[in-house]
Amino acid sequence: MKHHLIAAAILGLSAGAAHAVTFSGTAQGSWVDPIGSFGFTIANNDAGGTADVDWGTPATTNFNNLWSFDGVGSDGGPGWTAEAGNLFKVGDFTYRNGSVTGHDFDGASLAVTLFIINPLNVTESFSFAFDVINTPNNTGDPVLDGDIASIANTSTSATFMYGGLDYTLELLGFSQDGGATLTTGFNSPEGSTSVAALYGRIVEPNVVPVPASLPLLLAALGGLGLVRRARRRAA
């Protein structure tokens, strides 16, 4: 009986750990804490528009540099849905790369607000730092001369509780192929505009993972039960 109770307890742990909560809601972003003191402007209008930071005076192009973020569902469209532990699209990141002068902008933080609608109704804010990696325009190749938007810090500033567990948001990276490939930075060729999606996941750190040896342990317990029953019949 003791072995059956142990097996039942382990099966219960396995079933509980395998079950993940599905969350859904919308996302909204705003640019904060710019690195620099002159030559840039910030306009945070993601609700119904986009959150923008642009910098520099056009030199060899007729436009300056621009980072633009559009959170999923911020304009009233479909939001995001994600099972805890799985990636989901947070929003679209646009990088317009002009050839500019007259600025000292080196990056900013994106404050992401998740409006979680189901299975609870809460609003949580997270902050992620982004850097500009400026490439010297000396090759004549737009790609090689392109600049890079890079995630500098994926640590979060807030967590939320559901079902007795603390959940938090991890920013996983940029993707330009629907989440199949993730990178911490993406290139915007000189004189052009590139778009990449930002992906994240909601993590529940207190969940104990199912050990890889669990199937072997259950098989051993099952075999032990069969041996005990065989001995009873023999007696």
TrEMBL record:
Signal peptide location: 1-20
Q: Which residues cross the membrane?
A: 208-227
Superkingdom of this protein's organism: Bacteria
Q: Which terms are listed as keywords in the entry?
A: Membrane, Signal, Transmembrane, Transmembrane helix
Query: Glycoprotein: present as a keyword of the record?
Result: no
The organism of origin for this protein: Rhodovulum steppense
Name by which UniProt lists this protein: Putative secreted protein
InterPro entries hit by this protein: Choice_anch_K, Ice-binding_C, VPLPA-CTERM
